[in-house]
Amino acid sequence: MLDYDAEADRYDETRGGVPRARAAADAVLRLVPPGAGTLLDLACGTGLVTERLTRPGLRVYGADAAPGMAHKAGRRLPGGVVLADARRLPLPDASVDAVSAVWLLHLVPFSDAIVAEAARVLRPGGVLIATVDKDAAHDVGSDIDAVLAPHRSYEKSSDRADRVAAHASALGLEAAGATRFTGHDQGNTPRGTVEKLRRGYFASWFGGAPDTTAALMAELAALPDQDRPRDDPEYRLVSYRRPLGRD
């Protein structure tokens, strides 16, 4: 897993910047119920998405476990960001109207615990909004994907849509909606994919031995148009509601 404190200074510029953040925020807001008064953005990172979750009457807060990320987010949302583990939020039960988890559940083996904690802090009628099948979204059918395909497996992905849905249901949450958005400027290049392999970006699905990694890098380096981005991914967001009458 990446060191997100170390990544904080370059995170925005390597993740699609404002266009991607705006697309994500707009998609989240499409799933926030009318009349919601509070939203907590889990793993808010630098706050680039969080600061765009704006709507009249909606107060937005962020939480991140990485001090470097939380510090940057705090500059964007003064007084609105807390350093916290998404599994142990410093909030009482039934205290917020919406919880968002964008690009989080695929990163950790304890996604079920995050879903459970989100369910705990939701008020009746509140929603959990999360990206699912994130790694799979990056397979856009390109020549890069053809090289990676034999090494990809999403069977154990912690954000698989069916897994998240089953756990949400076990917690009493009901499916409430879904939407999609484009990951602007996230189309892979062969050269960039080699660098990502070197830096450990694909740890959630790739665990190749050093010789396998070297061979894969060589195959990617042989592709044409080394710096031409392939198609952008399209991410999926789902929402689950805590039924009214639950306390």
Description:
This protein has one domain: Rossmann fold, CATH 3.40.50. It has helices spanning 4-7, 17-31, 67-76, 111-121, 134-137, 143-148, 161-170, 190-199, 210-221; strands spanning 38-42, 59-64, 81-83, 96-101, 122-132, 174-182, 234-241. 33% of the residues lie in helices and 19% in strands. By secondary structure, it is α/β, with parallel strands linked by helices. The chain is globular and about 55 Å long. It has a 7-stranded mixed sheet with strand order 3-2-1-4-5-7-6, sandwiched between helices.
Main traits of this protein?
247 residues, 9 helices, single chain, 7-stranded mixed beta sheet, Rossmann fold, alpha/beta
Structure summary:
The chain is an alpha/beta fold. The protein is built from nine helices and seven strands; from the N terminus they run H-H-E-E-H-E-E-H-E-H-H-H-E-H-H-E.
The CATH topology comes to Rossmann fold
Largest sheet: 7 strands, mixed
Order of helices and strands: HHEEHEEHEHHHEHHE
DSSP strand (E) fraction? Answer: 15-25%
Distance between the termini: 36 Å
**How many domains make up the coordinates?**
1
Strand order of the largest sheet: 3-2-1-4-5-7-6
**Total strand count, please?**
7
DSSP summary: helix tally: 9
Write down the CATH class. Answer: Alpha Beta
Rounded to an integer in angstroms, the radius of gyration calculated over CA atoms is: 18 Å
Broad structural category: alpha/beta
Global outline:
globular
Spans of at least 5 consecutive residues with low confidence: none
Report the CATH superfamily: Vaccinia Virus protein VP39
CATH architecture: 3-Layer(aba) Sandwich
- Helical percentage: 25-40%
Mean pLDDT: 92
